[in-house]
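Notes, p. 3: input format for complexes.
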Amino acid sequence: MPRTPLVAANWKMHKTRAEAGSFLDEFLPGAADLVGVEVAICPPFTALATAIERCGGTAVTVAAQNVHDEPAGAFTGEVSAPMLVELGAWGAVVGHSERRRLFGETDAALARKVPAVLAAGLVPILCVGESEAERDGGRTEEVLERQLDADLAAVPDERLAEAVIAYEPIWAIGTGRTATVEQAAEAIAFARSAIARRDAGAAAATRILYGGSVKAANAGELMAAEGIDGALVGGASLQSEEFLAICEAGSR
Ligand code: PGA
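Output follows (252 residues plus 2-phosphoglycolic acid):
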């Protein structure tokens, strides 16, 4: 089954509503010419409505950077999937390494979040990846397998392929130290095989992105590699021309 590449902009804690609006004013006219690639913008919560409004009537979708697993409740500071659906969001990033590392997001929480996101009708972009010490210790595959098994455990087999996976080696995030095409392709092939142990059809249909210091200069060779179905882009997604060039590189 052909997998349409996806390029997603993870803006992290960058851009006010005004800045998000200016970015999209610059980006959307060029994005209208993209073929064979899907594009998602993941702004901070406060700029979601602005982004969704600007992207209305275009093929560009908008996703949150985090979500709670309960639909409502006494969870101060949290936002639920049905709330994102009401706004018109398309998806939500879950399990980003910054959330795992800085905000204590656990595989146990992700095991609840991923099915909750799907149940609400949103696409989860589930991030997995090893630290530098884990890679140096030869434990990359063990980490990926543990994260994927745990985080997808409660997703029914028939819905597995609706999730997007982003392989993001922690040592490559924001460091300028991109994984080589071989490292990225190898880890992604392993991640696909880990999903295939549950359901081979779902594994063949699941989009698995690479993330970690992707920029216009390396996006083409990464996304041309077998099995790499797009990119999750942090720093280089903040500038509209650079991000458009990355989206163009992902177009098939
Ligand atoms: P980076 O971030 O592109 O700035 O390395 C990627 C990410 O954290 O998703």
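The radius of gyration is 17 Å.
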